[in-house]
Design goal:
The protein has about 375 residues and is α/β, with parallel strands linked by helices. The protein is about 25% helix and about 15% strand. It has 11 helices and 13 strands. Strands 1-13-12-11-2-3-4-5-6-7-10-9-8 form a 13-stranded mixed beta sheet. Helix 1 packs parallel to helix 2 (about 110-115) and helix 2 runs parallel beside helix 3. The radius of gyration is 20 Å and the shape is globular. The two termini are about 30 Å apart. Residues about 1-15 have low confidence and may be disordered.
């Protein structure tokens, strides 16, 4: 077995200044980057903390009891998040996803959801507000989230076998409690529910069919995500990636599948329906079938840095504008200027890039900006 080396370097301070351009960029809702990709989806990390220690995201070897999480004063307040979100919406954002870390660890997150629920798109429509969670706190929080204005949730679940799941979350958390959280979310009206399974070859790929059978016919959409080379701490190796094509083949051999069309521009998942009409699955293939060409997502870190790609190594510091008395028009112009210069398409270029020797700029950790 190859030796696993986990770099102990904190790259959160790798930040670019967000400048207000000399030529203002008006918020017209038609913003495009250099590849003509619009801005439609904003993912907001509300905390860099999580109560799980999944090896592919926050391995315990790095994120131990001595890990220096961001101090509270560094985090954006709910009012600051909402103010920034308003400028993104003016540029065309229609969907907001709250992430972490584990977003339900952020105290009083219902207040933020309520504030975001008051925003309207340029067409006067409410935002599509959703949240990604590991499900550990969902049973106790689901009703309050719905009452605040949250519309739906995505739950991360990497297997049904309790021993496998406890091993992957590495804090001995039982799968039954996550399943109870999913039931509570459905009962509270958070619908449709999606369940995300990160597939790591040799670790949990034997759980693919049990997961498919469990959620088939429930109305819950199960999505299989290729194990990705995000950040610098998860020990990623290509030989641990199970291509989505293999996932589809495994399922279809037992539970026949037929392809479905995309439902929206920029959708990350390829959709497959069960041939008997009992539901659908999705596969997200950022390693083997990159979808950079239609990526319309921006990511806002919990301390106000704007990232243009999940695999980025630097963010743009919007917090300094917020706390430096910049006007809304200035902030919107800065966001527009940054997006107009966007060239990111890491997944499409992955195979042509030189191997990571560990001495260059490290990609930001997924736990810091969400998935």
């Amino acid at each position: 077995m190859a030796e696993r080396v986990i770099p102990l370097v904190d790259e959160r301070s790798s930040v670019l200044a967000a400048h207000v351009p000399v030529q203002p960029v008006a918020a017209s809702g038609t913003l495009r980057d250099t590849l003509r990709r619009p801005l439609r989806d904003l993912r907001i990390s509300v905390t860099d903390r999580c109560n799980f220690r999944c090896s592919y995201c926050m391995p315990k070897e790095v994120f131990d009891k001595n890990y220096p999480y961001l101090p509270h004063a560094s985090l954006l307040s709910f009012e600051e998040i909402t103010r920034l979100a308003r400028q993104f919406v003016a540029h065309g954002v229609q969907k907001v996803r709250l992430t972490g870390g584990e977003p339900l660890l952020r105290k009083n997150i219902e207040i933020l959801i309520g504030q975001l629920a008051q925003l309207r798109t340029a067409q006067g429509q409410p935002l599509d507000i959703t949240l990604t969670t590991n499900g550990s706190l969902l049973a106790r929080k689901a009703r309050a989230l719905t009452d605040a204005g949250l519309q739906r949730v995505t739950v991360s679940l990497d297997g049904l076998d309790d021993a496998v799941f406890r091993g992957m979350n590495d804090v001995d958390f039982p799968v039954a409690d996550v399943l109870r959280g999913i039931d509570a979310a459905r009962d509270a009206g958070l619908w449709p529910i999606k369940v995300n399974m990160v597939v790591k070859r040799g670790t949990n790929d034997h759980e693919i069919l049990p997961m498919a059978r469990h959620f088939k016919g429930t109305g819950i959409v199960l999505r299989f995500i290729e194990y990705m080379d995000v950040g610098a701490t998860n020990g990623w190796r290509m030989d641990e990636v199970l291509p989505s094509a293999d996932v589809v083949q495994r399922i279809s051999a037992q539970l026949p599948l037929v392809p479905l069309a995309h439902t929206a521009p920029g959708e990350t998942a390829q959709r497959w329906a069960y041939a008997d009409g009992s539901g659908e699955i999705g596969v997200i293939s950022s390693v083997t079938q990159a979808f950079c060409g239609s990526c319309n997502r921006a990511r806002l870190s919990t301390e106000g840095q704007l990232y243009l790609c999940l695999f980025a190594s630097q963010g743009h510091d919007l917090r300094s504008l917020l706390r430096g008395n910049a006007s809304d028009a200035d902030i919107a112009s800065a966001i527009g200027h940054i997006w107009q210069g966007r060239t990111d398409r890491y997944s499409e270029l992955r195979s042509t890039l030189a191997p990571d020797t560990g001495d260059g700029k490290r990609r930001v950790e997924m736990s810091y900006i969400g998935g």
